[in-house]
Amino acid sequence: MAQNKVVLITGSSRGIGAQTAQRFAQAGYAVVLNYRQAKKEAEELQQQIQAIGVECCAVQADVTKESDVSELFAQADNLGRLSVLVNNAGILKQQARVADISAERFMQVMEVNILSCLLCTQQAIKRMSTEQGGAGGAIVNVSSLAAKTGSPNEYVDYAASKGAMDSFTRGAALELAEEGIRVNAVRPGLIYTDIHASGGEPDRVNRLKHKLPLQRGGEPEEVAEAIYWLASEQSSYTTGTLLDVAGGL
Ligand code: NAP
């Protein structure tokens, strides 16, 4: 069991973030949950995690807003020293072609999917960096295989935001290595969560799963396990890596 380790997971009221929270709790981490609007789900998860016997708090914060992010990390400080940040919060919009993507929509997707990553990483550096009195730490970014495929005819804006996340992961990893902070990313493929409904196709995974080498969609637990590994001491020599969790795609 991890003693006195704290993990903060953005967007952890449901889906991959919620499963990741459960995974860290099982390993003994104190868990900071974050949600934008799903208070009830976040509080239910908080109770489930506390029942495991670890500390847990659920903090409402819009991770695109610098003041909210600052308050989120301040709340996390109450649980102890931050060891792990998982930049998981993400959105996609209705399936559309490039010609129909508005500038407003594009900026919303960029703000949630990549600006949030910058804001949260900056807060984590203040707490983890060995140059600032910290004990080091690990950051795991939840990117997407869309960074590789480009998501044509669906959401190129989303894919572009995840491409930015991959570059951010590489750059931050190289910059922060000497400060004791490892930075890696997972790139999930088709995972059974609510996010596909936001694109207008709740059953999208089942439509596309037969195109995957493994012939099935992935479960949030399978992504959570990869995130946990990248944050754990078991991956102590791994940084700047993009780990595909995508059924062979
Ligand atoms: P999901 O079920 O739709 O959950 C998204 C989470 O993000 C929710 O907890 C949501 O909070 C939170 N969130 C959204 N905007 C936020 C904001 N501004 N501030 C704080 N929290 C916010 O999605 P998911 O499928 O688990 O996705 C998690 C991550 O995996 C995303 O980055 C996504 O791009 C990535 N991913 C998913 C798949 C897949 O197939 N599912 C594939 C590749 C990558 P509320 O509940 O409060 O709205």
From TrEMBL:
Record-given protein name: Oxidoreductase
Entries under NCBIfam families matching the protein: PRK07231.1
PROSITE patterns given in the database record: ADH_SHORT
Source species: Planctobacterium marinum
UniProt keyword DNA damage present: no
Keyword field: Oxidoreductase
Family (UniProt): Belongs to the short-chain dehydrogenases/reductases (SDR) family.
Signal peptide bounds: none
Keyword Oxidoreductase attributed: yes
